[in-house]
Known about the structure:
This protein is mainly alpha-helical and about 425 residues long. The protein contains 18 helices and six strands. It has helices at about 35-40, 75-85, 85-95, 100-110, 120-125, 135-145, 160-185, 195-205, 215-230, 235-245, 250-265, 270-280, 290-295, 315-330, 340-350, 355-360, 365-375, 385-405; strands spanning about 5-10, 15-25, 30, 60-65, 70, 75. The strands form two sheets. A three-stranded antiparallel sheet has the order 1-2-3. The chain has a three-stranded antiparallel sheet with strand order 4-5-6. Strand 4 and strand 5 (about 70) form a beta hairpin. The longest helix is centred in the middle third of the chain and has 27 residues, at about 160-185. The site of carboxymethyl coenzyme *A has 20 residues, from helix 17. Carboxymethyl coenzyme *A binds near residues 309 and 367.
Amino acid sequence: MTPTRTFTLLDENSQLLCELPVLKGTIGPDVIDVQALYKNTGMFTYDPGFTSTASCSSDITYIDGEKGILLYRGYPIEQLAKRGIFLEVCYLLLYDELPTADELTAFEQNITMHTMVHDQLTNFFKGFRRDAHPMAIMVGVVGALSAFYHDALDITSKKDRDLSAIRLIAKVPTIVAMCYKYSIGLPFMYPNNKLSYVENFMRMMFATPCDDYVPNPVLVDALERILILHADHEQNASTSTVRLAGSSGANPYACITAGIACLWGAAHGGANEAVLNMLKQIGDVSEIPKFIARAKDKNDSFRLMGFGHRVYKNYDPRAKLMRATCYEVLEELGLHDDKLFKLALELERFALEDPYFIEKKLYPNVDFYSGIVLHALGIPTNMFTAIFAMGRTIGWIAHWDEMISDPEQRIGRPRQLFVGATPRDLPPQHR
Ligand code: CMC
């Protein structure tokens, strides 16, 4: 990237400290390249939570948080969600361009051929309690994939990286469904190669060896859309975690596991589970004002889950699409009067009219409505974040791949403002 202008840093006496290049992206804010700052001034930048820091350059996903715009490789999320083919989006994120019809068929076949997991992987489940949280099992079992597949671990080889990507996209749904089956004490279902990616996942979740499962096309479309909406979101916490883990040259399956661990938190992917629990806790429309008041109270740790976002200061475009999907799914299932959905709509209305939420620009995010759709699909609440992980796996792997092939990539190693003890000697009795 060639700098377009320089940013001049002066000291308190207006003396020149240093000049820093300003880099221009294709869209979005310019960035001040501070790489030479420490060398030239002996100072670091300080930015807890990275609110003003671009950690890398990327050409995968763009967000305009003020306008509520989300683009994957330049394509608006609304258009991709309408087409509704998750594997097409995976191809786009991984290989930069939309596939031709033949390329998509070959990609789908390739994924299908990798959906089974090594039979020994099933042994790992037995070490977990049946009531373990699915995300705990995901961390363990996806992490365990790093002990398999030694045939393709040269991360400098694009061919090996692609194979790891295909394996992860293919196997994560199988592992998610196994987590569910294990938790309810039912046998694991093998993948079925005749089905599409999403149909196969639903069958692995809901069929048993005694009873087959015929997926409902409306529900399949809804899940395709959920996965598309979760596929990528530029340098969010879990993706940054994957990049940081990968920057040391770590095993790709271990890096994705680091992303899963980060996603689990309630401020991130764990919010979808937290939203449903919150709606159940609120219970009735008449209770909404009480909970809104709690969310605004600085002395109360309660937050309105599914509301607010670091980047969006406008309606999250994914939440809009998710709300529309909610209507479709509930209509299909004859649940027009779904109590949780009505409660969510009222809660949204209350919050959007409240000066606290207006001033702080807090809008519903993707997690606000996704739980209601997943609940209607028959997916238990504690599985919601695992479904998010299934959708986000492609984003993690696309960013990991981009980082490894970036010539500017170096090990991620932030510095700190040290506020601890200055040098001192051990007391004599401890020497
Ligand atoms: N309810 C009540 N107040 C809130 C909320 C909320 N959901 N979100 C933010 N605020 C307030 C917060 O108290 C703060 O107030 P003040 O300026 O007076 O201290 C102000 O708004 C800014 O919030 P912040 O926590 O400093 O903002 P952040 O960018 O660090 O955090 C967030 C973003 C998403 C973690 C936060 O909005 C939140 O905790 N939301 C609820 C959890 C949630 O829905 N997470 C899913 C995010 S989208 C999907 C994903 O990324 O996985």
